[in-house]
Amino acid sequence: MSTFKAMVIEKADSGTKAALADFDEANLMDGDVTVRVEYSTVNYKDGLALTGKAPVVRRFPMIAGIDFAGTVESSNHPDWKAGDKVILNGWGTGETHLGAFAEKSRVKGDWLVRLPATMSTREAMAIGTAGFTAMLCVMALEKHGLTPASGPIAVTGAAGGVGSVAVSILSKLGFSVSAVTGRPAEADYLKGLGASEIVERAALTGPVKPLAKERWAGGVDSVGSTTLANLLSMIRYGGAVAACGLASGMDLPGSVAPFILRGVCLLGIDSVMCPLPKRQEAWKRLENDLDRQKLAAMTREIGLSDLPQAAADIVAGQIRGRVVVKIG
Fold first, then answer.
1. Would 281 be classed as within a structural domain?
2. Which side of the chain, N or C, has fewer Cβ within a 10 Å radius?
């Protein structure tokens, strides 16, 4: 095909504008692998890009979307051949490199991960960057030495994409999980994913004490700001928090007290430039350690034309779990 459907972000008088358009294949960026995209997904960063709420996009026009799963159409890369099933997360797609909300993408073969043998492209995008990041958080907590015997783990933003997958993975691994959410109506949903306790978000949004009562052995935080600062103050001696998001802000209005008086560690999690060996390990773990039935229960499907509304909803904190985008 010489043109294909894509969700394109253009500069506009009022900032940016996203719309479904016909994109000329000749305008794809350089890369040694061309992929027929089958599914993508909606992450918080995608919401920021499509709504223009934050300067995520660094060049225009830009095809949005930081994730895809699909089939290799052509390749000049030694690791890939036509017909291979592949996954892409991050690497600047949807920001500096034309992204995933399109029927076709051309990327560097070094950015790709092979689709796990037992996983469909739809399941891979039900996981997406949010679920991939959740797995990186779990791996970081395990590397720190946390086990189910260490004590409960708090997951903030629990009803969102990262949170939902983190709750599911941690519970399957045997951890007691405290799901922190500002949406109490999602309590049954979160308990269905494996949460043993529902914690009101307000418990972590008040004034931050240097040290609060020790409550959790560790945490997964996708919220940032005051929530993260409060969480750190409540972590038990020698515990850790894996931080991967900024839904409430980039600031951290806390103190050094948890670090120097309780030996707490703050583990930074980046999914965009994560090295390939760790990516491959994370996807193998996701294949084995994520309950597919729970994944299906937290997932709904939309089309390309539904993306603007989904973007507005995720930025407003109104999306539960995961959203897959059917492309092909």
1. no
2. N
